[in-house]
Amino acid sequence: MAEAHQAVAFQFTITPEGIDLQLSYQALNQIYLSGVRSWKKRVSRMRNRVIKGVYPASPSSWLFVAIGILATMYMQSDPSMGLIAKIQHLHVSLSTQGQTMVSALVFSTLLWLSLILALRFCLKLLLSYHQWMFEQHGRVSNTTKVWVTLLRLLSGRKPLLYSYQTSLPHLPVPAVRDTLTRYLESVRPLLTDLEYKRMTDLANEFESSLGNRLQRYLKLKALWATNYVSDWWEEYIYLRGRGPIMVNSNYYGMDFLYVTPTSVQAARAGNTITALLLYRRMVNREELTPVRLHEAFPHLSQCERMFNTTRTPGVETDVLQHWQDSEFVAVYSRGRYYRLWVYRAGRLLSAREIEHQIQWILDDPSPPLPGEEKLGALTAGDRVPWAQIRKEHFSSGVNKRSLDIIEKAAFFVTLDDEAQGMKGDDPTGNLDRYAKSLLHGKCYDRWFDKSFSIVIYKNGKSGLNAEHSWADAPTVAHLWEVRVCPTLSVSFLWTFGSRDQIFSSLTVAKALADDVDCHVFPFRDFGKGKIKKLRVSPDAFIQISLQLAYFRDRGSFCLTYEASMTRLFREGRTETVRSCSNQSCAFVKALEGGEGADQCKRLFRQASEKHQNLYRMAMTGAGIDRHLFCLYVVSKYLGVDSPFLKEVLSEPWCLSTSQTPVQQMELFDLKNHPDFVSLGGGFGPVADDGYGVSYIIVGEDMINFHVSSKHSCGETDSHRFGAQIAKALQDIMAVLSADTPSSSKGPAQPQSKKLL
Q: Terminus of the chain with fewer CB atoms < 10 Å: N or C?
């Protein structure tokens, strides 16, 4: 049935004796409790709006200002310098004392609002200071010390989740010349002298002709919009993509490496669903504490679309739809779709109650309806056919109502009938299959359009598949870290006339999934603990190792993408760090050419420092690729072509990399519980002939890697590249450790927090 039978609150019938009215007090009580919960949420949201609206002050500070003004007036002093008297003349219907009181309160309110604006302006200036990122680790300047003190004074009160929103600075638009200079430097190691001269000529021609014109439009947008990149990035990079989002866009997150809290599938599902809904409650109430900027970055608006959100297909562009507080989740089990109510009369069901519902679904013997089992393949294939099928078959009637249940659900849950994880006779192969299962599954047993889908396996292992357009990996990673730590379930009713289209989408998705070569491996020889003893940034160490591994694997260097964050700015998302630099290439060539250890160490230090500087530049708004991307979008709006921008935007990222953040260290005590190691997550390759590499630095002694490529490319092999990564890490460590006492106090290398 499409919906559960609703409880009837009252019934009446007309009889010869009159109207026979029957009330169901239990049903009325349920309606009352549900209404109370709804009003509590409204009041809570209204309270939070007021608190955020006056941040960094507090609503109670108005009372102190008003009392102070009244006290000074009582002492025959006029703090308003005559303004209260002018306001007093506007009140003609009050007594003299009443006019004085009202005028003083009006002036107090105006003064209070002025102070809030001044404090917010000061906080914005403080948050615009980024020089602390460029200072050497352990050597803090006096300016930065003063900045930290002032920042704590202004934001000392416990902030809400979005309190920093309006105080964050806008992302600056770099100068065209600066961006072009940095771009040419980034491609120099990849081009011959002749190719580099040609690219330099194209850049100079662009700067002297079209660049400044496009820049003016971009600066105008930066004045008007809160972020000149984010909306175009979301639309043109994600929502306008017409190919499958499975593998190409969506990414995955894994469970613990060694530990499974329970092998009972229903119990693990009940605990996971409960934890996620409690997290949603914290997001709605804005109870998650923003991380201080000096430590990392504050959580921002991306959390708002974490739950109850779906990407709906369109012919030209997709649309993100968000609803408020769905009281159910959508569940897929053995080809059937179910709506699982998780609230009763405004109360969140316990994990045990949800477990019973999940077990009922698992025990349901009813077979899927014709076409129902593989319906999810529509979300895995090309977007245009899905949009057309949706319009033709899901725009009205029972199909629309059933589809609405999936799309409006808090999130999607798959009860997978397979077992996954590392344990078994083939731990390496098992991890690879685990990754592929989360990345694409059977191509029809995930709903790839949902903001995120949870997968609970038969043996209690779990994982996550996330849609990328609404948020970046750190937002989902924060949710997943928290998760790791009698209502009726009802199946849907579908009527299908589109089984041929489902089969067509499944064929496209299956070909894409079968082509993905995934390899997951934990590197246990050493971790960030040993790297830091060498006074080296762990992220720079890994990125330079990836350059060495790629050079050994392919015999050349390539354009390398490393994701960094721009969360220091309002509505910031990501920027690209071009990790392949002149300095990293010089080190790789020296090491492979048999240069001496001292020479290799010197070149490595230069490469590490260069990488850290590139990372800081990207984080502070001086990146390359987002600026060039926006200039390209402006050129398309104006209908003008730029050979330079066209070539830059078409360059393939043969090595795409990203670090999965561990943001809530207080949740993990790896020293006393080393088995609770997270595997992190991964993504598909960006280029057909390239690699996708994701890594997570876990504790002091382990780094987990996720490598992906395509079987169809004869030049790539994920397992081979994984072996090259491990060897590169070992070889660089051997070079840096050679004849180096563990107590050596060499010059400190600048280090900054890694955010993705």
A: N
